[in-house]
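Side project, low priority. Logging it here so it doesn't get lost.
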Amino acid sequence: MISHMRNKGRVLVAMSGGIDSTMTAVMLKEQGYDVVGITMKTWDYESSGATGKETGCCSLDSINDARTIAVEYDIPHYVLDLRAEFGDKIIRNFVSEYLSGRTPNPCVLCNTFIKWEALLDKADKLNCDYLATGHYAHLKQENGRWVIYKGRDSKKDQSYVLWGLTQDVLARTLLPLGGLTKAEIRRMALQRGYHQLVRKSESYEICFIPDNDYRAFLRRQAEKLGKYIGPGPLKLISGEVIGQHPGYPFFTIGQRKNLGVALGKPMYVVHIDPVKNEVVIGPREALRCRAMTVTGVNWIRYDHLDGPRDVITKVRYKHEGARARIRPADDGRVEVEFLEPVYGVAPGQSAVFYEGDAVVGGGIITQTQSAHEVQNMAVAGAGPHRGV
């Protein structure tokens, strides 16, 4: 079963060596597509400075796993070295956003500017009609547009990270796993004898930080740029300095753990000031966001936003979504008014708008009302926190 059926053709399948991408290739091959496999090399483990065993989609073991399956199914297989492009577009943005006091989402940028852009270019060179990935999401055609829908498995749904894909890209995309659950994928793998794939652990770490120590990674990358990450004041929203933090890029809005202080009640990061090197913490209520501005919006279900529209808005990957009213603003910006409480909205993260299970569009959160409120309470004389 695939999320949408088309005439069979030649398809380039992104194969990471994991169970999802493997079953994507196997399913399409069994359905009669002419499958070509490709594995991306997006980062260099040694240069990342991490310690421990090499793991993840770019490891030599993963590349070999993908190639083994390809050989078994008589699928031509290629390895595409994208380390330079990945460093320029993803890692550089990741570091820059944290140094600006924002919280980036590298997976969204990778999907938009690395996976689909680079792989479709390779697909053209290999005479492939389509590109297929193992994402858990649907594609449907409505009113002449390709629309992304949530995957059937709500726990694995990945529609959130696909908002940046344009109509030209979606028209050539196949998402075979959208109508299946993870449990069904595992059963299909077992039926074909792929017990090792089922036992293979899934990584939820950032692919270029395999040891999950993003603070050490940021410090090393900042030093390469001649930037020094140093300690600064840790404040309460009252303005009282209660300690020092090790560096503002090591914090994100809504963070509760590893604040370096114990005040006898839950406290959260509510404001980050990169100019003053300050981190402000406060109670959960200080995180409440009533409105935000979203830029760089890509519309999927419609070709533009012609007026106010009520949607469900997700402000991070694991967010269930909240009722909101969106309105078009100048320079392609979208103003979002939340119709119910939302907490911990972090500039730099993606906002994705839904109608039911359909993705209306998405963009980058650049400004929040809660940041203004905290600024007025805690940072006398400073301007409002803005993204760029």
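Brief comment: Confidence is low (pLDDT under 50) at residues 1-6, 50-55, 377-388.
Revisit when time allows.
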